[in-house]
């Protein structure tokens, strides 16, 4: 497994891989089994597996969330090596944004709902960084988890709209036994908080409607940001112990 910090060197390496099928998993590190499943999917379907680790500042609307975002490079690389990744790109913010955040992609105003509304700038930041990464990697397939459902939808639409050659592959959410969707942010929950957090999935899956799901979560002490049904999914964001949790399940 090769690790690339320098983007010129990575691009030279990429040119040498011409003709091979490439699968790509973009990440912000703090890797868990959810990321592991994306890497395994890429491993099964492509000759070369590329992973990026970059905590993207432009998608954080809350500076303290960016500061507290877990950074665990050494164990991340050990995990990727075990999973059989071939190439890992670990660029600096200065290299990813050589002119600052001066050029950015804008979602359609109709998409500024849920994450787009509650996290101003989030979708812009994700679209912009994913466009940069997809152009740097020029993968045949890129894997995204369904847990970040709105991100997956936006990136899929962006790839189609801009005629990108990469197929966006939607991968199912990986859950702990309790039902809790795997997330890098779960590391900041207490053991009791982790148990409570699993109620999010249960409420989304079992409630008759969004109002009932909200009620169930508020009774658990969660502060609900939104619960809505859109795009054939029931989606929610809620805060617990200062951690923002999101999840979604198929519905309707
Ligand atoms: O889902 C994530 O980890 C990030 O939003 C992504 C896609 C790597 C872009 O920074």
Task: Provide structural commentary.
- The protein is an alpha/beta fold and 252 residues long.
- The chain folds into two domains: 2-171, HUPs (Rossmann fold, 3-Layer(aba) Sandwich), CATH 3.40.50.620; 184-250, Pantoate-beta-alanine ligase, C-terminal domain (Pantoate--beta-alanine Ligase, Chain: A,domain 2), CATH 3.30.1300.
- Helices cover 40% and strands 21% of the residues.
- It contains eleven helices and nine strands.
- The chain has a six-stranded parallel β-sheet, sandwiched between helices. Strands 7-8-9 form a three-stranded antiparallel β-sheet, with helices on one face.
- The radius of gyration is 18 Å and the shape is globular.
- The protein starts with a strand and ends with a strand.
- The model has no long low-confidence stretch (mean pLDDT 97).
- Residues 26-28, 56, 59, 126, 129-130, 148, 151 line the site of pantoate.
Indicate the mean pLDDT.
Answer: 97
Whole-Å distance between the termini? Answer: 44 Å
Strand numbers in spatial order across the main sheet: 1-4-3-2-5-6
H/E series: EHEHEHHEHHHEHEHHHEEE
Quick recap:
By secondary structure, this protein is of the alpha/beta class. Helix content is 40%, strand content 21%. Strand 2, helix 2 and strand 3 form a beta-alpha-beta unit.
List the helices and strands and how they pair.
Elements lengths: L1 E3 L2 H10 L5 E6 L5 H13 L2 E6 L9 H6 L4 H11 L3 E3 L3 H4 L18 H4 L3 H16 L3 E5 L3 H13 L5 E5 L19 H7 L1 H8 L3 H10 L3 E8 L2 E8 L2 E8 L2
Parallel strand pairs: 1-4, 2-3, 2-5, 3-4, 5-6
Antiparallel strand pairs: 7-8, 8-9
Helix pairs in contact: 7-8, 10-11
């Amino acid at each position: 497994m090769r690790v690339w910090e320098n983007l010129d060197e990575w691009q030279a390496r990429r040119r040498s891989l011409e003709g091979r099928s490439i699968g790509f998993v973009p990440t912000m590190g703090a890797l868990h089994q959810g990321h592991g499943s994306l890497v395994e999917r890429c491993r099964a379907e492509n000759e070369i597996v590329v992973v990026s680790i970059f905590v993207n500042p432009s998608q954080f609307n809350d500076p303290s969330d960016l500061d507290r975002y877990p950074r665990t490079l050494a164990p991340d690389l050990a995990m990727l090596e075990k999973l059989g990744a071939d190439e890992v790109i670990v660029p600096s913010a200065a290299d990813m944004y050589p002119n600052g955040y001066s050029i950015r992609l804008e979602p359609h105003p109709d998409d500024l709902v849920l994450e787009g509304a509650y996290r101003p700038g989030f979708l812009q930041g994700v679209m912009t960084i994913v466009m940069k990464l997809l152009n740097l990697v020029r993968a045949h397939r890129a894997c995204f988890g369904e847990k970040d459902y709105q991100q997956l939808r936006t990136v899929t639409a962006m790839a189609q709209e801009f005629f990108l050659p990469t197929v966006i592959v939607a991968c199912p959410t990986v859950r702990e036994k309790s039902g809790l969707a795997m997330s890098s942010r779960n590391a900041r929950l207490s053991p009791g908080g982790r148990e409570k957090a699993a109620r999010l999935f249960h409420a989304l899956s079992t409630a008759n409607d969004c109002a009932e799901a909200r009620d169930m979560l508020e009774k658990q002490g969660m502060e609900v940001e939104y619960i809505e049904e859109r795009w054939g999914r029931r989606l929610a964001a809620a805060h617990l112990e200062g951690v923002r949790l999101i999840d979604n399940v198929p519905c309707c």
